[in-house]
Amino acid sequence: MPKNSKVVKRELDDDVTESVKDLLSNEDSAEDAFKTSELIVDGQEEKDTDVEEGSEVEDERPAWNSKLQYILAQVGFSVGLGNVWRFPYLCQKNGGGAYLLPYLILLMVIGIPLFFLELSVGQRIRRGSIGVWNYISPKLGGIGFASCVVCYFVALYYNVIIGWSLFYFSQSFQQPLPWDQCPLVKNASHTFVEPECEQSSATTYYWYREALNISSSISESGGLNWKMTICLLAAWVMVCLAMIKGIQSSGKIVYFSSLFPYVVLICFLIRAFLLNGSIDGIRHMFTPRLEIMLEPKVWREAATQVFFALGLGFGGVIAFSSYNKRDNNCHFDALNWKEEGSSQGS
Fold this sequence. Notes:
Elements: H1 3-59, H2 67-78, H3 81-93, H4 100-125, H5 129-136, H6 141-171, E1 184-186, E2 191-193, H7 195-199, H8 202-211, H9 226-243, H10 247-257, H11 260-274, H12 278-286, H13 296-310, H14 316-321, H15 330-345
Antiparallel strand pairs: 1-2
Helix pairs in contact: 2-10, 3-13, 4-13, 4-15, 5-6, 6-9
């Protein structure tokens, strides 16, 4: 073979080798590009998975152990001093039985729709009052903080009332009861009834002078009332123990805290019926005065009582419903509470 042919052959072999290398390099670059695009797709899928997992984590919010716990929690939140003390007073003040008509009308027009709104919002977003309003709009987050501040002030005076109840409960294990009769004052010559108690009553005297140990004017502090301080501390400790583990602890407490008030109300009802003139008092309370229904004040106080009766605007309804599953029938719950609110009114 001539030398020129060998040179040509070598050049052809070199060209083939280079073309093969170019093909391989192009194949590698294509493969790298494919891998890069695959990584991008995988990364996007991972992000989507993270979003789904994030929603699943959000769905992992603690839930009520049973529907009964949730119902008792809402009932316990709604049935409070506003129903036990405030409603009979407003009913007698604003026309007796005629007051029930504006109350029931406003309960249907205002109370139930707002109650259903709070139930559905809390159940769908699954956050507390602050989180719900921040989720709707960060500019509305102040509404959630305002409701928490209101709940804080309500908790302050409610625990004071619990402290008073604990004090009277501790003093009730006596015979006769310390507020049954006026105390006697003894001096060197004779014994007489406390004049201040004689001018008022035994229960009033015991409340102001023994329980509260109230001073003669607001400018005098009167010192620290240790008995009430201890009772108030015990009330806050009870609340802390009930709430320390969230709904895992409060969900068990509601079996007592929500049902016991009804036992007390039944006892009060039986005791009231046994008193002299009880029928006359009930007749006077529920005798309708229809002319007073034309006053705007009656409707305003009826609307206020609707908010107290259902616990609207405090954030508690939103918080309780946020521990429900998203497929819970909150519309059915709102209708049930309509019956509850009607029964509280009657």
